[in-house]
Amino acid sequence: MVQNTSVVCKFSENGCTWNFKAKDMANHLEECNFAPYNCVGRKLNMFLCSWKGLKKDAIEHFKESHSNFGNCFPFTHKSFFKINFSNKINLKGFHLINAFNKDFCFCCQSDSTKKEVNVMIYLMGRKTTAKKYLLSFEIYTTENYFKKVTFVQPIFSDADDEDEIKSNGINVSENILKQFVVDDKLHYRLRIVKKEFKPRTESASSENEVRKPERKQGKNFEMAKKMNNPFLRG
To answer: Which run of H or E residues covers position 41?
Structure first.
């Protein structure tokens, strides 16, 4: 009875008006837009920022305070970008991406020790919504666009565990970088695509099954059948 009792969100003082059953409250608290939230850059260890506010205000804070670090840009399937890469120092890049009227956080960093590039992306929103999208990350050379490698990964939500988000990111190894880095730059194209959910079709039962009409066999068919079967030849 306690688990099925409707309760008020504990962030109601911040403005949340949702009521949930006690058994469903834990999932809501992970995604509540009125929950306390740190700066996105600090959350991912991309840069230092002391801002603390509500989750619903995190994107606006980034646009106002960190536009020089990575501007929010509209997403198109024709967008091409580049990552600065160095074998000597670690470099980081961060962008806010607006796709399908939703905000995504895209970050990439080069690791000079492991000599690899790490890429990850997540949705500022609900877990169930994030599961509807995939990230396609394609690297290529400016000398030959047809020489390319494409990585595809699921997109997570900022409500997911941070370690899970990082562990499921894309790692571009040193062997691949040697083939694609030109003048200390790795060129890439990214696409956020919706998963295609095909409706499940039930197999027709034997009673309702629609049978195709039998094709009549003509004289030519019977003659060819005899020619191909030595036991039927005259």
So the answer is: helix 40-43
- What is the C-alpha separation between 54 and 72, in angstroms, rounded? 19
- The model's pTM is 0.70
- Burial of residue 196, with CB atoms counted within 10 A of its CB: 0-12 exposed, 13-18 middle, 19 or more buried: exposed
**Tens of each residue's pLDDT in the chain, 234 residues:** 656 678 899 899 999 998 888 888 888 888 899 999 988 877 777 778 889 999 999 888 888 887 765 544 444 444 556 666 666 777 777 778 888 888 888 888 888 888 888 888 889 889 999 999 999 888 888 888 788 999 998 999 988 887 888 788 888 888 888 888 888 888 888 888 888 755 555 444 444 444 444 555 555 555 545 554 444 444
Cβ atoms of residues 158 and 119 within 8 Å: no
Residue 149 neighbours by CB under 8 Å, 6+ apart: 138, 139, 140, 176, 180
Cβ contact 150:138 at 8 Å: yes
DSSP string, 46-106: SS----EEEGGGHHHHHHHH-TTT--EEE--TT-EEEEE--SSS-EEEEEEEEETTEEEEE
From 139, 146, 136, select the one nearest 177 (Cα to Cα).
Answer: 139
* Dist CA 81 CA 73 (whole Å): 12
